Amino acid sequence: xxxxxxxxxxxxxxxxGLTSFGGPTAHLGYFRAEYVEKRKWLDERAYAxxxxxxxxxxxxxxxxxxxxxxxxxxxxxxxILAWIGFMLPSALALAIFAWLLQGSNIGEPGxxxxxxxxxxxxxxxxxxxxxxxxAPDRPRATLALGAAILTLVWPSAWEQILLLLFAGWIGWQWxxxxxxxxxxxxxxxxxxRGAVICxxxxxxLLLGLPAFRHTVSSPFLALFDSFFRVGSLVFGGGHVVxxxxxxxxxxxxxxxxxxxxxxxxxxQAVPGPLFTFAAYLGAVISGWKGALLATLAIFMPSxxxxxGALPFWSRLRVMPNVRGIxxxxxxxxxxxxxxxxxxxxxxxxxxxxxxxxLALFAFGLLMVWKQPSWAVVLVCGVLxxxx
Length: 387
Known about the structure:
Shape: globular
Order of helices and strands: HHHHHHHHHHHHHHH
Helix content: over 70%
Number of strands: 0
Largest sheet: none
Radius of gyration: 20 Å
Subcellular location: Cell membrane
GO molecular function, one term: chromate transmembrane transporter activity
Membrane topology: Multi-pass membrane protein
Protein name: ChrA protein
Distance between the termini: 49 Å
Strand content: under 5%
Keywords: Cell membrane, Membrane, Transmembrane, Transmembrane helix
């Protein structure tokens, strides 16, 4: 594989890991700005298809989208480097928090509040851009609005999965099914054999680790099993993972509720995926070895799932019937993003007229002045700290 492409994937994902505040929905906005608009590694429709795929897989959707883009850009190693780059800044920061700030709870300083306001603008920009491309006509716009309404009145991970399935059925039955040509993508030749191996490894570990854990008394094996199982089975990603993690690490007595909640507070103050909360938990349980093992365990299923699904997905997405399904799913994804713009993004960020003004200012920098998202994040962080 081209070494230049691998280094490029690592560098871009690392910068996104340093600047992507605001949770998984905001991350998708950052990814779209970087990979679709700026670098044009893939087009809007291909990006939306990747988002749709990762929405229906268990695990952290935004991290999986980044892994998928790394796989398409630079092959199997590219997917690994995309994951490492995106998660490394926050994982290191949270491991250091575990060492320095155990038992203390982090509030919401002004600079963090400024970053949340920037996230509102970034998500709004993503919704606007994706709506123009993926819900341009009355049927798809109606489907997007319906998805947003249902998500707001019935918020749950299972609702989102059922909604995407229903939207796919509507697309299959009634929406246009345009023919598409396969767009050559550097590094996109991922083998089906490799995909089957990835899915087999996932199944063997998911089924075998619990049994092996009970026959071999090893705290590190128990740690790996707990975090691997959470990464394999949690749907919805992000904050949905917290109850499962709490039951895995607090109930066995590995840490107290106070330590757990302190880490949750720290996780809100760093960029990147919330799943790197595992680095904090692992560090509290077993130091740096625990941090490394827990982080690897919780993210490994995401890589195996995406690598296992992507070679088949790349071929399926160009079939006419599948295109109709994806037209419906993509419109529903726009609705999900629209609902998420309100909750949790706006509900967490907008508490006063000043917050709304700062979010509008950030939106203007993005949409009118065409400033890069990382610069808007920095400006909002400084303004939040000062004001």
